[in-house]
Amino acid sequence: MAQRDTILWAKTPSNLKIAYNASIIYPGFRAGVEYPIKRIDMTKYRRWRGLRHFSQMRYLSAELGYYHHTDFHDNIYLLAGWQMRKERPRGFFTEFSPAIGYSRTFLGGETYLVDDAGNISLLKGAGYNYAMLAIGGGLGYQFHPQTSAYFRSSLLTMFPNNNLVYLRPTVELGLIWQTRHFWERSTKNISKTKGKKS
Amino acid sequence: MKNLLFAAFLGLIFTACQKVEITIGPNANDTFYIRQEDASMRVLVRGNTASKVFMLVVHGGPGSSGYIYDTPKMEEIVGTDFALAFYDQRNAGASQGNVNATHYNLGQYAEDLKEVIEVLKYRYGQDISIFLWSKSFGGMVASAFMTKDNYQDLVKGWLFVDASHNYGLNDSLTYQMLLDVGMQHISDGKNAESWESIVAYCQKNPPGPFSFEQSIELNKYGWKAQKIIEDLEPYQYTVIKDGIFKEHLPLTNYYLGKTNAAERKFNESLTPIKFSDALAKVKVPVLVCFGKLDFVCPQGLGDDFLAHIGSTDKQKLIFEKSAHHLEEQDAYYNAFRKFLLEHP
Questions:
Q1: Once rounded to an integer, what is the mean pLDDT over residues A147-155?
Q2: A123 exposed, middle or buried (CB, 10 Å; 0-12, 13-18, 19+)?
Q3: B68 min Cα distance to partner chain A (Å)
Q4: 20 to 30 A Cα–Cα from A90, which one of A31, B26, B93, B335?
Q5: B315 and B201 share a domain?
């Protein structure tokens, strides 16, 4: 087994993304930016499968999400995450993305407050603040040099909710736009070769 | 991109705004919340609010939900002439909040119920009549409410349906029913194999007082018995499945509410509570309904309730082919409707 690494530094722009974000039938959106950290171009030789190329991209991501669940709540949340994407030469990619964040909900109906004297008032913007953990995985396809479409499924965990946690599965269908110069950064590009030709 | 984000924010602001919707008419479909002691409890109002008569559902559990009683039959038979209010108790159903474990006690549940009634009157008129409809654990909540100060003056009547008001008595009655019915089935050779484990548990554990762990086990065996007993009216319990979209059920909140660890502690705190003696002060008309085959809340609870309640206007109905799920839907709902009609 032989392994050869080449390290280059290159200017890499950030990606912008926007998606329809839903939980079954409840609509929403998710939009954000992916700030490049590292790229690993991998070449693998396998005796039976031949030569394989793929790239592993690493981004720091920041996203704003929202969904509306009728009669339950509206939820707006901010997430900071670590985006791991594996890109194949034909344009297909898979990704995994853990994130942490903050959520603010707005209750899905007018909210009344009754004080000790029995006076009733309407609370404006009633809802709750939650800490949030999110984990997601998905796949996509780069159909244009600068544009990709992706599908991702995530599980949002909000806490503390009712003395415990609240779990919310979501699915996204969106676009990633690879900008030309937006928020460019000099990233470490590593080329790795594994295995040997037989 | 900036424009897109701006448009998204505008959309958010519009949808997040909470409009006040109060329907006075034959087909209400209102949703609102009540914030009390770090919890926001959801209330659904359905049916005929123009009638000015509300049947307020106090659900079981702890940790169940009001909307599981919002069946099509309930709306058709009771909701055509009267309004129905389904509220989710704190930390249950669609209710929301952060940390409120310090308020996890029956007294607080009674206060929450009082505030639900006050807000219903605030929204739909001080002249509305409210009938409490309590089921299972909801009987404990309603008993705590009805026996406190002069709270009963806020309601016109009380429907006590497959409910409990005395935790220890509930366990003893479940134990005795499991043992009696189980032994009868074994001696008759009817489904004996299924009953053997139930009877074996009862014989291994002497009759009360029961520990909390024993109480949990008896409850589990009660549910098991209802699955194997004969002569039950066939009833498909599909209200959760049917309501996922129609009622926008927050399923994960509902199921997490049912398995909330803090709730177990609360449940344990209920074991010494009994309202039998305190019921003497309750004077409003009552309707007591029990399923003859209910092992979870046996009909003996209804007998004790009637023996202690101070009301002179009191009726008891037994549903021969029902257990704990109001299996004879038409018969139950017509009985509720008749009781409301008889108390204008």
A1: 96
A2: middle
A3: 16
A4: A31
A5: no
Q: How far apart are CA A57 and CA A36, in angstroms?
A: 8
Name the closest residue on chain A to residue B247, using Cα atoms.
A71
Place of tokens 């505030």: B115
List the single residue in B12, B119, B260 with the smallest CB-CB distance to A163.
B260
CATH number of the domain encompassing residue A94: 2.40.160.20
B161 and B179 co-located in one domain:
no
Q: Quick one: tokens of A48?
A: 């039976």
Q: What is the DSSP letter of B66?
A: G
CATH of the domain at B259: 3.40.50.1820
Question: For A68-112, what is each residue's pLDDT tens digit?
Answer: 999 999 999 999 999 999 999 999 999 999 999 999 999 999 999
Whether A38 is in a domain gets the answer: yes
Q: Which residue reads 């762990």 in tokens?
A: B213
Is A114–B16 a contact, with Cβ atoms under 8 angstroms apart?
A: no
B40, B99, B248 member nearest A163 (Cβ): B99
Quick check: is B3 in a domain? Answer: no
The DSSP result for B73-130, as a single string, is HIIIIITTTSEEEEEPPTTSTT-EES--GGG-SHHHHHHHHHHHHHHHHHHH-TT-EE
Look at residues A9, A52, A22 and name the one whose alpha carbon lies nearest to residue A153: A22
The mean pLDDT values, 10 residues at a time, for chain B of 344 residues are: 53 55 93 94 97 97 89 94 96 92 92 97 97 97 98 98 97 97 96 95 91 94 96 84 80 83 80 96 98 97 98 97 95 98 94
Closest chain A C-alpha to B8 CA, distance in angstroms:
8
Are both B253 and B337 inside the same structural domain? Answer: yes
Interface test with B, best of A104, A158, A164 (most B CBs within 10 A): A164
